[in-house]
Write a structure and sequence with these properties.
Elements lengths: L1 E10 L2 E11 L4 E6 L5 H8 L7 E6 L2 E2 L3 H10 E4 L11 H11 L5 H14 L15 H13 L5 E5 L7 H18 L6 E5 L3 H7 L2 E6 L2 E7 H4 L9 H10 L4 E2 L2 E2 L3
Parallel strand pairs: 3-8, 3-9, 6-7, 7-8
Antiparallel strand pairs: 1-2, 1-4, 4-5, 9-10, 11-12
Helix pairs in contact: 3-4, 3-5, 5-6
Bound molecules: adenosine-5'-triphosphate.
Adenosine-5'-triphosphate binds next to helix 1.
């Protein structure tokens, strides 16, 4: 379980997270929605222990991320895919995927390579194992980024706007892979996913729950169907406003959304 309890994060005078609480249980696929600047990426960075908290507490399976020793253990349980691909440019695709399992988990190279090859094949990159990141398209690079995270066999997979640097075609190819993953994982006690995305329709299809951040406050936390119900998430003007901007068709779950 990822447990976020009353988290406060400030940058200077600005309070970016203002008492955020959120629990993500094994098997869940939870999406964080919210306008630009609402604090979504900061929350992911706090869960990763990349930001110091100004209040509250975050634990991953009981490990407190504010404690450096516990954080090191917590980081073995969760893997994060970021918006920018962050691949090592001087290493092949295969090496990018095998490095952490070999160095951090100290697993044998042959075993890790076989798994990495299978992972790459599962995302349509079987022929790219020996290529370098610069030789790949953005969508391909992000698929390598996903393989690299999965190679750590994480209990929790955190995804921070993984498609926002991609064009629509590449976005579709990456979302297809994540959709497959979410479908495979859902309810089986496998990798739990916490997503930050602007892809509302995608979130609706694959999430078990949706939470909405508004100016650093988590104002709604509902099962997906309730989030899109008129008397659920859509009862909040801020959410209606957000969805109407995100979904130009103005039709969300059969409800007409007007600003
Ligand atoms: N290192 C930092 N120093 C100062 N301010 C920061 C820092 N990181 C984030 N912020 C500010 O915190 C606020 C929340 O940023 P954050 O990136 O978490 O938002 P977001 O919801 O992920 O936005 P987007 O959807 O645009 O990525 C913004 O106002 C941002 O400018």
């Amino acid at each position: 379980m990822i447990a976020v309890e009353g988290v406060v994060k400030r940058f200077g005078a600005q309070t970016v997270l203002d008492g955020v609480s959120l629990a993500v249980a094994p098997g869940e696929v939870v999406t964080i929605l919210g306008s630009s600047g609402s604090g979504k990426s900061t929350l992911i960075r706090c869960i990763n222990g990349l930001e110091r908290l100004d209040g509250g507490r975050i634990t991953v399976d009981g490990l407190d991320v504010a404690d450096p020793r516990q954080l090191a253990q917590a980081r073995r349980l969760s893997a994060t895919v970021f918006q920018l691909f962050n691949l090592y440019p001087h290493m092949t695709v295969l090496r990018n995927v095998t490095l952490a399992p070999e160095v951090v988990l100290k697993r044998p190279r042959a075993e890790v390579e076989a798994e990495a090859q299978a992972l790459l094949a599962s995302v349509g990159l079987a022929g790219k194992a020996d290529a370098y990141p610069a030789q790949l398209s953005g969508g391909q690079r992000q698929r390598v980024g996903i393989c690299r995270a999965l190679a750590m066999n994480p209990r929790y997979l955190l995804l921070d706007e993984v498609t926002s640097a991609l064009d629509p075609e590449m976005t579709a190819e990456v979302l297809a892979i994540l959709g497959r993953l979410a479908g495979r994982q859902m309810g089986d006690g496998g990798t739990t996913m916490l997503f930050v995305t602007h892809e509302v329709e995608f979130a609706r299809r694959i999430s078990t729950r949706i939470v909405f951040l508004d100016q650093g406050r988590l104002i709604v936390d509902l099962p997906t169907a309730r989030f899109f119900a008129d008397d659920g998430g859509l009862a909040h003007p801020r959410i209606r406003q957000f969805l109407s901007k995100m979904a130009p068709s103005n039709t969300v779950a059969g409800a007409e959304v007007t600003v």
